[in-house]
Amino acid sequence: MHTWKMWAICTALAAYLPEEQALRQACLSCDATQSCNCSFMGLDFIPPGLTGKITVLNLAHNRIKLIRTHDLQKAVNLRTLLLQSNQISSIDEDSFGSQGKLELLDLSNNSLAHLSPVWFGPLFSLQHLRIQGNSYSDLGESSPFSSLRNLSSLHLGNPQFSIIRQGNFEGIVFLNTLRIDGDNLSQYEPGSLKSIRKINHMIISIRRIDVFSAVIRDLLHSAIWLDVRKLAFSVPEKIQLLRIMSSSFAKKISLKQCLFTDATVPEIVSILEGMPKLMEVEMKDCTLLGTGKWYKQIHANQSQSLRILTIENLSIEEFYLFTDLQSVLDLLSLFRKVTVENTKVFLVPCKLSQHLLSLEYLDLSANLLGDQSLEHSACQGAWPSLQTLNLSQNSLSDLKMTGKSLFHLRNLNLLDISENNFGEIPDMCEWPENLKYLNLSSTQIPKLTTCIPSTLEVLDVSANNLQDFGLQLPFLKELYLTKNHLKTLPEATDIPNLVAMSISRNKLNSFSKEELTVRGAQVGSVQLSLMECHRSLLVSLICTLVFLFILILVVVGYKYHAVWYMRMTWAWLQAKRKPKRAPTKDICYDAFVSYSENDSNWVENIMVQQLEQACPPFRLCLHKRDFVPGKWIVDNIIDSIEKSHKTLFVLSEHFVQSEWCKYELDFSHFRLFDENNDVAILILLEPIQSQAIPKRFCKLRKIMNTKTYLEWPPDEEQQQMFWENLKAALKS
């Protein structure tokens, strides 16, 4: 019985461990306790081995085509499942049966041709669902979301999505965000969205005004922020279909990538102004075909709620012909916050500025305002309530004229004129009396003067060409000096109330704690880079590390014969320039003899006599006798080997320890053995193991293991046979 139990346990473990191993192989960055990132892995299926420990599973950007019943069965604690950008076209009905704790499911950008309510049935904890970018044309006959009681955000739609039916959203009572990509939506059944009682942010991309009108009719009391995209307001007659919007309780309207004309603008303004709770209008990346010559007078009712207007990246092809906006003067009088960014504004008419009586915030950044046009825009009586003004990224160049143009703005306390091109600034300027914040960063200022107002509490002069800071600013609390050329800190007595200062990316060499003391109160937090705080220490540390690195290289090079490899590489390069074999006329010797000095007695007194006194005699090259005096020894070795038919190595324990024998072996290693011929003759003078030969002479070791060599016999009777064999080898 115990045996069977052990067998069952081992079988279960054997099945479990390969699954976990398979998961680790498929997801190299998988943390089996919490999160698995299997994106961009080229997977065709959901990998096996998923366990109850995993809470986040990212399978995005793979080639998965279907989700099977057993794929996610064990991942019972999943909170996030990302399957976007695959090729999923089929999902088994109970694929998500174990995902009762799932909170985010992303199936976007796949190939789902239909949606089944059965898929989402077990997902009672789901809060975020993304199913956009598939190929379904509708949501089915009923609601696929009826069981998703906790759903907070839903994103659906695709280029093929064409119809929304009644009942498609049954079961959803509240949504924080609903986004519908309905560029080709052609049919909307009235009442389809009416079941949703509240939508904080409704985003819809749509091109047909009649369909949009039907959608709006169901959202009159539920949508708080209505975000409309890609709609063309170009036909005045069709704009009448949107009159129903005047009854909407939306507090914010966003129009993005929309199209307007001079003929439709008055109608749209009239509709928006009629919305009883509308507080904010936003236009981004829109296009206006016209010059402001509206054919119908705009009758301003002065909405009591509308206070914020944002226009960003508005394209007006003939902006230079745009009129003075006389017809909207009354409409703008109650705005408190206006942003007109990157819209090629080169002038705000004086009369228009004078009508902005309630304006507290004005952002005209990234436009074409110059010194003269600013003077006209900020004329006497303009912007009387203005507190914040952003003129960054314009064409201002005269700081004195800028201050003078804004001097009458008594309530202005924050001015951003960064990323203009002021350059040199004068000594005296006029500024609004209550100005507290001034941003002059990236304005090409080489030196600060008393033109800077002394009333400031915050000053930003980052990214300029400042060499020093010598201003007296008694009320300054924050100072930003990043990316300049300062070599010393500002004098503490000049800025006694300073609380925060940013001085990174300057040329400060060092400073003391005393320099950071302001009237006895030390700065609480100093955040500087390591280079700025300990430059000398850092340089010393770098030098030490470089020295240690070089020392390690020397030690490693010595241990692994790096010098030897460099010397032999040089010899090999020299040899490579020469022909593979010397011409026959240059051959002077029958053999070059390579031997150790300790074996010279046997070589010179025995072998030389036997070979040079033979009949016919052999011509041998010996280094003692035949090397050219005064010539580099390596060149002598190379030349002698090249001028010999054979190279004769007399191997012994002394040979493998000899430095010059190594050179001779080296060149043979590069020059002779590589030619795959038998020019090398090995004589084993005494028993020697191939392992005793240095490992870097791998070919010599291989020859000793695979080829026959001559071994000097101690028995005199066998020596005669040795000499005959050697002579035969030399003649071959």
TrEMBL record:
Signal sequence residues: 1-22
Matching SUPFAM superfamilies: L domain-like, Toll/Interleukin receptor TIR domain
UniProt xrefs under PROSITE patterns: LRR, TIR
Record field: transmembrane: 537-558
Taxonomic superkingdom: Eukaryota
Pfam family, one: TIR
Domain TIR: 587-730
Keyword Phosphoprotein (UniProt): no
BP GO terms, sorted: inflammatory response; innate immune response; toll-like receptor signaling pathway
One GO location term (cellular component): membrane
PANTHER family associated with the record: TOLL-LIKE RECEPTOR, TOLL-LIKE RECEPTOR 2
Family: Belongs to the Toll-like receptor family.
Function: Cooperates with LY96 to mediate the innate immune response to bacterial lipoproteins and other microbial cell wall components. Cooperates with TLR1 or TLR6 to mediate the innate immune response to bacterial lipoproteins or lipopeptides. Acts via MYD88 and TRAF6, leading to NF-kappa-B activation, cytokine secretion and the inflammatory response.
Protein name, as recorded: Toll-like receptor 2
Species assigned in the record: Gallus gallus
